[in-house]
């Protein structure tokens, strides 16, 4: 539904986006994740046709946003990072105003306003002035205006920024509910957002894509091995050698010890659950087993790993990850 191909944008000397490529399937909610200044807003403004690219191309439902802007725009709803707020208009007036700009037929307008107001939970404030609404309501009005012309594609730039925790949950639920009927790209610099709302994530840093995939797929791929922490009581060297003999175990390292109790970090082959065998090995040797738990990398760790590594490591990582933008980076 959305194809972004080798997109590059320069603002004078600043290379804001460099060789970004990704695709979004129909009905998918894609998270566009990256720290501030990564190039999220720039990319989204190009997809929505508000900004032209320096090079590369974007297609929405098969229409090139530069060559067939009207056809493309018809299919796109956009919630900008800082939605324009006509504070003295009522919600109804504002939605009618945007609807007319977007070319919604007069006869359809009332029905559309009722539909999006219902969907975005702003029907109860339809006659209130936007300026007097809470931030949460205002954000939902922003979402409603993005949907007024019933676009197939929704581009939402940091839709939960500035909301309180309750409003964040409500907005997330609302966006999740759009999946299937709409194709959504939502940008965020907050990690829990993507794991809670999105089926797939594109991670962008300094204008290039550094990884993409399902949130848990990213974890597994980046880590490359599983980790189990084993806490046992017994002689450390013997336990270590014993655990090393368990099939699927690649490395055993001592983490901590207090008295006779030690904690070992056991690395295992990917997707290889060896916990039962580890437990058996400890217990059958007559040692005490106190705890056994898997320890995965959190999405936080991954994000840090992806966005703080130096360029050499980045290039290497891009070889192992099928992410777009790898070529552009190699040229730098
Ligand atoms: N209008 C502009 N003029 C010059 N530089 C800009 C402009 N807009 C964004 N930039 C720069 O481009 C980079 C990417 O910005 P942006 O796309 O807003 O990132 P994000 O949305 O991920 O925070 C940043 O370095 C930013 O300073
Ligand atoms: Mg931004």
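-> sequence recovered:
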């Amino acid at each position: 539904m959305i194809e972004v191909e080798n997109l590059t944008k320069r603002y004078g000397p600043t290379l804001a986006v460099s060789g970004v490529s990704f695709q979004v399937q129909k009905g998918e909610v894609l998270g566009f994740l990256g720290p501030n200044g990564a190039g999220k807003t720039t990319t989204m403004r190009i997809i929505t046709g508000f900004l032209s690219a320096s090079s590369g191309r974007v297609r929405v439902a098969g229409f090139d946003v530069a060559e067939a802007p009207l056809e493309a725009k018809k299919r796109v709803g956009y919630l900008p990072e800082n939605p324009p707020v006509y504070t003295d208009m009522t919600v109804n007036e504002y939605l009618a105003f945007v609807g007319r700009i977007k070319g919604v037929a007069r006869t359809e307008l009332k029905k559309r306003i009722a539909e999006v107001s219902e969907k975005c939970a702003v029907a109860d404030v339809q006659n209130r002035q936007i300026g007097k609404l809470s931030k949460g309501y205002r954000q939902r009005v922003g979402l409603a205006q993005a949907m007024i012309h019933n676009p197939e594609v929704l581009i939402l730039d940091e839709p939960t920024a500035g909301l309180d925790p309750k409003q964040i949950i409500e907005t997330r639920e609302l966006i999740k509910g759009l999946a299937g009927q709409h194709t959504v790209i939502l940008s965020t610099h907050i990690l829990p957002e993507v794991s809670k709302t999105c089926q797939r994530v594109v991670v962008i840093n300094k204008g290039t894509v550094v990884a993409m995939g399902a949130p848990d797929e990213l974890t597994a791929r980046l880590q490359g091995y599983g980790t189990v922490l084993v806490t046992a009581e017994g002689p450390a060297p013997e336990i270590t050698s014993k655990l090393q003999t368990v099939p699927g175990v690649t490395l055993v390292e001592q983490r901590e010890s207090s008295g006779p109790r030690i904690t070992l970090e056991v690395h295992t082959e990917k997707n290889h659950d060896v916990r039962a065998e580890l437990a058996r090995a400890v217990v059958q040797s007559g040692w005490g087993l106190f705890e056994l738990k898997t320890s995965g990398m959190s999405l936080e760790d991954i994000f840090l790993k992806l966005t703080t590594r130096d360029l050499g490591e980045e290039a290497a990582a891009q070889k192992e990850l099928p992410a777009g933008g790898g070529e552009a980076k190699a040229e730098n």
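Residues 11, 14, 16, 34, 36-42 surround adenosine-5'-diphosphate (ligand 1) (CB under 6 Å).
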